Amino acid sequence: MPIFLRGPSAFLPAFLLLGGCAHAPSTPPQTTVALSPSDGSGGEAPPARWWRLYREPALDALVSEALTNNRDLQVAAANLLKARAELGETRARRGPSTGLSAGAGYGSTLQDQIAATADSGDSIRTGSRFDAGAELSWELDLFGRLGSGVKAATADLAATAADADGVRALIAARVTGAWLQACGIAHQEALARETLAVAEHDRDVAQVLLTAGAISPADGLRTEAQVAETAAEIPVLAADRHAALAELAILAGRLPSRIPPAAIACTRIPILNGPLPVGDAASLLRRRPDVRAAEQRLAAATARIGIAVGDLYPHVSLVGGLGLSAPSASDLTSRENAVWRLGPLLSWSFPNLGAARARIAGARAGEAAALARFDAAILSALGEVDRAARGYGAALERQAQWRIAQQRSGRVAVMTRARRAAGAATALDMLDSDRTDLSARRALAQADIELAAAQVRFFAALGGGWEDAPVVPLPALDRSPPAIRNATRNRVSAK
Length: 495
Known about the structure:
The structure is a single chain. By secondary structure, this protein is α+β, with helices and mostly antiparallel strands. It has one domain: Up-down Bundle (Outer membrane efflux proteins (OEP)). The protein has twelve helices and four strands. Helix 5 (145-211) packs antiparallel against helix 11. 32% of the residues are buried. Residues 1-12 have low confidence and may be disordered.
């Protein structure tokens, strides 16, 4: 019996012996980070759409718009489609591949030389020659190389999906943060204008007192300087607010000038009711897309060891082919002009296996690096949550202290007005108490902005916001010439 008819199993012991009995790991390694439930704060996990805790329907609508139209999300969606296509290509390699060929030319060919030899003639035919052929090849995955490739591509797809989820979570956090910042700056701008009015009134009173000789010229100049300092803050606040509003428009896929009217109308930061939920460490890491992406890339790195180990052994394929060659196209159907073959084909780099073993070593090193990145992602996630929680606690305490200060200064302003009405306090005393109260209110407004930013950072650290996200449509591809495209846009604008 010919050796190739005994089946591929007859070669396995020899191949394994010559290959050095190299084996690929079946599962990726576990993280080296020791986790415990105490690594999280415990309690209930945050809701998927955490921005709804602010109870602002306009904010909810804008986040949904951004999660659909944001350009970074469109890039992530395209990358996900690309990874899915690459997985389909990898899976297709496990099936048979076919090829067709056809050609025509003039001259003498190898077939003409063989025909002349067979006829014992001295002249070789020169003329037209028509060729056609078909080939089929099916690689048998005896050593798991193709299967490992599918595992690697599947893990790469899962990692790309996790990356897309991370972009969704980031966009949701950026939209919410920009919304809260714009609302807070609007409140600051209103307080700055109120402070400017008080400073201008203080200046006018000082001018009267200066004319009467009740104060020195330096005191009058001091009030004018206070007016200028306060007025200088207003354009900066207005520019900062516009920047936050323009960022909202861009995040939602709009032009910077198309700012949502509801965001413009917001002048106070919405209050977040109730404590912030966290959950335990395990649920935290499941919510973090960056941790899931690192875990899937570790799985892909492990699968690539299988690909490298597979290259250490022979590639065995079932191959079939049919070739036709004739002087005329009509003779291609003649059996005499057909050549065919069917059988196994073995390709192997033995005994030069140094390159294959180097690839295995490189793949194992890649797995070690992927494990280190996975561990780093876990530690980074836990550290980010810890810092965000402590930052939120500090911002909450700071806001509480400024609230007490503002309440006390407000009571002093009320008492000073009462004393002024009774004649026990001067106009300057009342202006001074009003300035102190406004200063405390502005400091409280800044504390509100910092607290809102700390809240968003905390929610972003928890990793939520990507669940139940809407489908992101890819951008429409317009390949029309620029002149036609501009004319179409002008017609739309005219309507």
